Amino acid sequence: MDLESANDTLCPGDTVARSKPETDIEQHVLGTKVKLSDGTDALVFSRTPRNKDLLFGYSCHICGVVCLYGERMLQIHIAGRKHQARLNVTVFDAEQYRASLVAKPKRKLIFFFCDDIEKMD
Ligand SMILES: [Zn+2]
């Protein structure tokens, strides 16, 4: 009975971190903040509910990247040169940051961003 209910919760659309990598990311990475040019703090990353492969989707708002599925992809992105260079910027443009928040993860847009990452890194 317990096992069955556990399986029920791990499904596309689930938003709760369950595995070790997922909770590690939640505790140590998702809380990372940067300063915006209007004086406010903003989160660097956000997480979307699990996709059909049961992976969380991660967005990096300072790089405008929205296609990071799974904790490994996120960690690879964080270790990448593009992201590290962005982190060295002390103040981020507030307008640019907000624009990345409203960018809807449409399929074509996702592929565009993914291509972009490979070329940049
Ligand atoms: Zn980034």
Short description:
This protein is α+β, with helices and mostly antiparallel strands. It has a domain at 21-102. It has 6 helices and 6 strands.
Summarize the helix and strand pattern as letters: HHEEEEEHHEHH
Coarse morphology: elongated
Supply the helix-strand structural class: alpha+beta
Helix content: 40-55%
What ions, cofactors and ligands are bound?
zinc ion
Q: Tell me about the biggest sheet?
A: 3 strands, mixed
Beta fraction? 15-25%
End-to-end separation: 47 Å
Oligomer: single chain
Low-confidence stretches: 107-121
Q: Overall pLDDT, averaged?
A: 83
Tell me the Rg in angstroms.
15 Å
Task: Lay out the secondary structure.
Blueprint (H helix, E strand, L loop, with lengths): L1 H8 L10 H9 L4 E4 L4 E3 L1 E4 L8 E4 L4 E5 L1 H9 L1 H7 L3 E2 L1 H9 L4 H14 L1
Parallel strand pairs: 1-6
Antiparallel strand pairs: 1-2, 3-4, 4-5
The structure holds zinc ion.
The site of zinc ion has 7 residues, from α4.
Organism: Anopheles maculatus
Protein name: C2H2-type domain-containing protein
Task: Please explain how this structure is put together.
The protein has helices at 2-9, 20-28, 71-79, 81-87, 94-102, 107-120, and strands at residues 33-36, 41-43, 45-48, 57-60, 65-69, 91-92. The relative contact order is 0.15. Strand 1 and strand 2 (41-43) form a beta hairpin. It has a domain at 21-102. The radius of gyration is 15 Å and the shape is elongated. Residues 107-121 have low confidence and may be disordered. The strands form 2 sheets. It has a 3-stranded mixed sheet with strand order 2-1-6. The protein has a 3-stranded antiparallel sheet with strand order 3-4-5. With 121 residues, it is α+β, with helices and mostly antiparallel strands. Helices cover 46% and strands 18% of the residues. The protein is built from 6 helices and 6 strands, in the order H-H-E-E-E-E-E-H-H-E-H-H. The structure holds zinc ion. The site of zinc ion has 7 residues, from helix 4.
